[in-house]
Design goal:
The model is unreliable at 1-42, 276-295, 300-326, 505-515 and 738-751 (pLDDT under 50). The chain is mainly α and 751 residues long. The chain has 35 helices and no strands. It is elongated, with a radius of gyration of 34 Å. The chain has four domains: 50-236; 350-503 and 515-609, Leucine-rich Repeat Variant (Alpha Horseshoe), CATH 1.25.10; 624-677, no CATH class; 682-747, no CATH class. It comes from Corythaeola cristata.
Length: 751
Amino acid sequence: MWRRHSSKTQKQPLQVHCKNQTDLSAWRKGGRTDPEKSVQNNQSPGDQKNDSKQDSFEQALSYFEKVQDHVSLKKNSVLQKHLTTVESIALQRGLPPEGFDVLLNVALSGKLADTVNTRLLKSLIPASVVPETSVVSSVSWLCVGKCSGNIQLLFLRWLITIFDFIDHKEQLHALYGFFFSFLQDEKMCPYVCHLLYLLTRKESVKPFRIRRLLDLQAKMGMQSHLQALLSLYKLFCPELVTITLPGKMKTYFKNSDGPWKAAINTVRRRNQENSPVSQPLFLGTAQPQSRKRKWNTQLIIPASSTNKNNLKEDKEKNHVDLYSTNESFPVEQLQTFSQLLQNISHLEFPSQMGSVLTNPLLLHYMNCIKDESIYLRLYYWMGQTLQEECTWCTADNNEYEEEFKDFLETVYKTECFLQEGFSSCEEFLYKSLPLWDGLCCRSQILRLVSWIPLSSFSEMKSHLYDPLAQLFFTSSLYFKCSVLESLKQLLQNWLNWHIINLDSESDSQFHSLNTTLSGLVNVVAELIHFVGWISTVALRLEHNPTFLLYFILDFYETVCDMYLRYNLPLLIMPPAGVFYPALLSMDSVSLNQLCYIMYRYRTNLVAAKENELTKKKILQFKFSSQTYQEYNQYIIAMVGCLWTSSAFQKDVHPQGLHMDDELLKKTTVQEFKTSFNIVYHPAMMGYAVLFLQQAWPDDTTFNFSLIKGKKWNWYLEYLYAQGLKGLKVFIESSINRVSQASRSKAGNVQV
């Protein structure tokens, strides 16, 4: 291992604990080498070229290490040469860990002009990790005030960007108070807050720091970066932060990536492409993976990624007490569920929150512990990543669509595992849906829509319903069905959440709606009305296709059972633009679905009416008389069509089937009254033909009038045997029959 240290760092030699740490030979080749194959007898021309570049880089580091006095860039060709060398090497393959100490010291020491220092800081692109000792050494230069304010600001931005590349962070945590003192500088305050946000632990929260933040907020106003830090403090110590803070997650910090982020991604891809094998993560994982961008490089827990109590030496690694209660358990060694149970009280999450998404054990921990600080850190990381890497929001990200799909799929699976949506995903969807074309990452986006947390209707209408409706009406039939499926899943997730939290009056999401159950009822009602509206329009646009009707009715199978299955005091009937196309459908599946839905509506409405009559106290929620009236209108139409052959005379719905006899006679349709009963209905006629063939195999006239009396009952039994269970329960519950074949007498038509 090549080691170059100034006199300042010789007292603290760099200790690299990661087995996969980049060595000099690997760095020269733009990749990493297998220790068993590192001995080479002959050098290729490419290796010789790399050695030449390496020699130039060593000379540049040696030059910057020995710089004593202020040197002008314009009149010094040597300085220009070495500065260009550093920039070139950094952009091509990144800098090795040993180069940061020299370059940071010279950039922050004030020996060179700000122009040179700026270029040096912008070239600090890591090839693997950034040694913590180098960062701590460079921070000490901020104490003596040798560098200008702009350079200090640029250094902080760099430190935030490469935070996850720092190999250890214990000494950085010890400098928490030092960084906190820089909050008084208005220009540096946003970036200092950002850095403190990344460093904050529970023990970092002190009353004097809270008072200082409140004083700054009183002086500067409600700044987002101050709110972020106060929100994190309040999560750790709610008894110390008593002020009310905005509960809605938003973008707290400005983008600090500057010139480094794109360069880091480019260097990482180039280094992995040049490697003869698929390389593991630069931050020290032991498993190979495919070439991925920023988000996927953080989905595996890196070695030495926890914030404290990292292993000291390789020898000690062989004797780690996995169940010690005196120190934090190394999260990268968490392999089994039993280890999680044994160490759940002293497990510290990795600095790279993205690694949590693919680790079921850590997700179990999140479900069990419900540590709000963990969720806040995860939301912040995820929000930043989604905002910066969205392929249709950023012009230069189009080539990474497949990788972005993988990331969105991982986020969705995490939400399914935790059974709750992320507010950062909600913010991302609200911002990106107006710009979305409905094609890029379609499946992933619609799946994320199904996990949007409960919000007020005003927010959902402007940010979700309006942009989704524009895409819905102008897209293909398949897209319409996908949207309906997503909204059905959204409704089910809300209802499941309601069941789980029914007895939890202190649940934070209830408070976010300002009201408890009434807020949920209103939001769910608006979702159902929205789906009813877009379904009605879609059926007209697409001319009532069976495929679309299936997804619409599937949504209402959930709606019709909300009262009994989910204990939600709400029932909303489907609009006439959905009910009548289903009733007159040419497909028996749709008609059978509608029959089952109306049966469940009846069951729920009867239960609600009985509950109202038996409760002595006044109920907070009652179904309106309009709901009962609309149900009765629909049931009259259905019975008139399928059973009594009187739909055209008795249907009283404003958008129903009622027609005068004179108008019906002009259609020249014989026996028009029976056109939609269970024998002549277009969806049922196929069954009637098959029944006639079995009952009268010698009769080829297909005389449907033969199906009456006892044959009618046989025909019903035949239909039931064909799997039309929805039709069966509807007839048995909603139609009075006096027949020996009738299994039960099921009450009146009207509720």
